[in-house]
Structure formats: structure tokens, C-alpha cells
Known about the structure:
six-stranded parallel β-sheet; 10 helices; 13% strand
Amino acid sequence: MLMLDGKKYRILIVDDHTLFRRGLRALIDSCARFEVVGEATDGLEGVKMQQQLQPDAVLLDLDMPVMRGLEALPQMINHNPQQVVLMLTVSEDGSDLVECMRLGARGYLLKNIDTEFLLDSIEKAINGDSVLSPEMTSKLVTQLRQQEQVADEVKEPLTPREREILRWLARGSSNKLIARNLEVTESTVKVHVQNILRKLNVVSRVQAAVYAVEHGMDK
């Protein structure tokens, strides 16, 4: 699905491995939904290109020379708080995953994912979802438990509407889908989601979804 005005989603690739980067570009450019607007070979170059090109999404490697993905990520988010950044990495370390999500990444994908999953994940992230490679979901839960990033109790109770929206988040639903089902505007859903994250003391939709499952609030 293209954007409403018929334009393609604009993608920036930041990865230091030339062969992988070029293959990824060819893959993305072959899809009618997307176009690659730039390639960067390290985090510093990636930050500069993100600021210049204003892409719809950034595919950001974790381990690179000059500036690592974990350093580049917060700079990209600081420049544009709405920037969609997807980590695309070989690291299956749960602490890397949690740190990237805490810093504002919209998703964490492993480089061994298949083509359709990658392309669908990019589009879902641009449309408001958080996305993970399937094998990273359990690692997120484990890491959150270990680091106690999810509070055992909600200090400020959720409203009935917030609990309802939290159930939709636990299903991986986008703001657009939630708004359609609840017959409200996307901006209203966005405000509710922000309130939910604040009350649960979490920083991403994925963490809110994990909280819902862990506390039986997903049904």
C-alpha cells in the first residue's frame, strides 16, 4: 500500500557492510511501496543524512565504526521525535534490545528475517506499530523482568478506555486500527497511548503490550 498521496515511503539505510547494504537497497527498491533515498556507512554519516533527507524510516545497524547505532539512535530521535528507526542487526542480546527500545527505536529486527517480514515490518512501523523479530519477544520479556523495568503495580490506575486500548496494544494493533474499531480519531488514540505509557512507567508500545500480557490485562 502506498501513501495516500501516491508517494513511496522513503527509506534510509545505515550499515557499514557494503554487500549487505547494497543487497538491502536492491530488495527495498524492488518493492513498489518503498524507495531508498540514501545509504550511510556509519552512525555519524547516518545522523547527518537523516537530518538532511528526513526519511520516513531509518534502518540502523547496531555495530558500526565511528559511531555505533546506540549512539546514533538518540541523536536521530532528538532531531525528530517522530522519526521511525528500526534496528537491523545480528545481535540477539536482550540488553541491546531493551536499550534500543528505551532510546526510541520503533523496532528490533534480526538480519536473518525473510524478505516479506522485513518489508511488512517497515510499513507497520511507519504506520505506528512496534515490531520485533519473533525470537526476540521472549528475550524482551526476560530482560524486562531482570531489569525490573516494568512496575509490579500501576501507581496511577488506568481508565476504562485506557485499559481497552491497552488490550488492543497487546494484540499489536496500530493507532489507525484502534481508532477505527473504537470509532475515535487517531489523535485521541495517540493521547491515550501516551497516558498509558506514562502510567505504566514504560517507554514503548512493545513494553506496554508485555505489561498487559504479564498482568492479565490483554483479554
